[in-house]
Amino acid sequence: xxxxxxxxxxxxxxxxxxxxxxxxxxxxxxxxxxxxxxxxxxxxxxxxxxxxxxxxxxxxxxxxxxxxxxxxxxxxxxxxxxxxxxxxxxxxxxxxxxxxxxxxxxxxxxxxxxxxx
Length: 117
Known about the structure:
With 117 residues, the chain is of the alpha+beta class. 39% of the residues lie in helices and 13% in strands. The chain is built from four helices and four strands. It has helices at residues 8-18, 25-46, 53-61, 101-104; strands at 64-67, 70-73, 86-88, 107-110. α2 crosses α3 (53-61). The two termini are 27 Å apart. The relative contact order is 0.11.
């Protein structure tokens, strides 16, 4: 995800601010999650309600937030409407440290949305 052209500007700004590249794709996921929470709080306050747990949760449920990964919104159960399943392949890479997750379990790609036969 950090290699995605859509994330290039964000990655550049991240490197400039922290003098380091984002550690992994979950950095973007965390950032996008924060965008959803911030958006919900702003909408609660703008509507004149108290920004408490229940109000923010309900606002998050109704969120449609443009993020680095695309628009995030949720179904009636609070699950993402756009579900992505990432595929990693675990294998022993003797040329790399055993505790290197990037070397021992490289990212393969996104699982297909429909079962492949």
